[in-house]
Amino acid sequence: MAEAASATGEDILDVTQESFQQAVLDESHKRPVVVDFWAAWCGPCQQLMPLLQQLAAQYAGKFRLAKVNSDEQQALAQQYGVRSLPTVMVFRHGKPADQFMGVQPEPNIRAMIDKYLEKPSDKLIEKAREQAQAGDTDGAVATLRTALEEDPDSSDLRIELARALAQTGDTDGAEAELGKLPLGQSEKEEAKALRARLVFAKAAAGIDPQAVAQELQEGDPRPEALEQMAAYAMLSGRAEEALGLYLQLMKQHRSYNDGAGQKGLLAAFEVLGNDHPLVGQYRRQMASLLY
Q1: Which of 133, 255, 276 minimizes the C-alpha distance to 193?
Q2: N or C: which end of the chain has fewer CB within 10 A?
Q3: Catalytic residue among 45, 82, 178, 265
């Protein structure tokens, strides 16, 4: 890559606790932001910083270099778990996406930055999301399939295609796309959450909500009814109802459909996330049934 004459003041800047939100988090939605946590007394920091500044100049605005003096901004360094200096983090879409500690060779740093630069496929993902939001899910699928032909190694594209297929009701197609992800990418949070949602979509397929609700009200429902309504409740955003029904299914029909009650609970935990207040509560109740 040809070296640019210099980087602008918008591309390399010192960042404080007060400016971090705008300079790093907000900016990272537009382009990668490389945050260098450094200190004046740190020899390796003095060795690394000129290299980072040189790269910022060469990339000519494709990423921002934000320098954080960790002695002066101790709360900020602590907030992001900085344990040694230098620590370099790449922020993308409002959160840390990658990091390294110590001095690294230039090719390694380039490789890390390049992973987060905007690609043509990123714009196609945005287009597909807009199509899906407008109700044109078939158009979104077509856009993403075309994008994947041009960039077949993009895990983000494949996850987005799986999401669009799920929205059209093609859960088998969505599962197939997720199954094509490399092992490391298969464990990305987006992929795991989507895989969990497919559990609900398949279980609730063809449900008659009123008939199933009537069966539940009458008492002694079939395990199929419990599973269907739990899945339907999760898809409808009624998490507490869903968790209660999955727990009931687990209590009353432990072995039904290869442990559908426990599997449903685990899928719900994946979608809700560990920080959700219901997850800890129902995880303990699930464990009490198991042990």
Answers
A1: 276
A2: C
A3: 45
